UniProtKB/TrEMBL annotation:
Biological classification of the source: Bacteria, Pseudomonadati, Pseudomonadota, Betaproteobacteria, Neisseriales
Protein name (Swiss-Prot/TrEMBL): Porin
Signal sequence region: 1-20
Pfam family, one: YfaZ
Keyword set, alphabetical order: Signal
Stored SUPFAM superfamilies: Porins (SSF56935)
InterPro entries listed in its UniProt record: YfaZ
Length: 177
């Protein structure tokens, strides 16, 4: 019985140990972002944090699927988004979207976008949208450098003001494991 239980625990722990992941930090004019993305077979998980001292913070947890298409990797999924803006109530949204990674030699061109209409957001939110696109230089198998553009915006309604946390170029670094 103990051997069967131990074998089951080891078998269930192998996929977790084999999960590929990326930890990214990026800084732009007035904003800072950090992201984690993990993948196991066709499933992806993500956690993102975006902050701007002048406007507030956006955090999200995501789940999706990915599929190869030639050399490209396509991703689709959803995120639960928490918005904590200065001088405003906290807001929430369930955003849907996806992205693409296209390797080109030592570089990867990437882009992603997510959107939540008012029906998938808390009161006071007309819509939420975010996007990020850029180029990643894969220096080594473990370390990459990024340059790109990031946008994060919530359009308010019912007396809540619209807030843009990020709208500009950034540079960053990524650790792959």
């Amino acid at each position: 019985m103990k051997k069967t239980l131990l074998g089951a625990i080891l078998a269930l722990s192998l996929p977790v140990a084999a999960q590929a992941g990326e930890l990214t930090a990026r800084a732009g004019d007035g904003f800072f972002g950090a992201s984690y993305e993990g993948s196991l077979l066709l499933l992806t998980t993500s956690a993102d944090w975006l902050t701007n001292d002048g406007t507030g913070n956006i955090g999200s947890l995501g789940l999706g699927v990915q599929a190869p298409l030639g050399i490209a990797k396509l991703k689709a999924g959803g995120k639960l988004v928490y918005m904590n803006f200065n001088h405003q109530d906290n807001h929430y949204a369930a955003a849907l979207g996806g992205g693409v990674d296209i390797p080109v030699g030592a570089f990867t061109i990437y882009g992603q976008g997510y959107f939540a209409p008012s029906g998938l957001a808390s009161d006071g939110v007309d819509h939420y949208k975010e996007m990020r696109a850029g180029v990643r230089w894969n220096m080594t198998k473990m370390v990459s450098l990024d340059a790109g553009y990031q946008y994060g915006h919530m359009k308010g309604k019912d007396g809540n003001r619209s807030v843009t946390v990020a709208d500009g170029l950034y540079v960053g670094a990524q650790l792959n494991f």
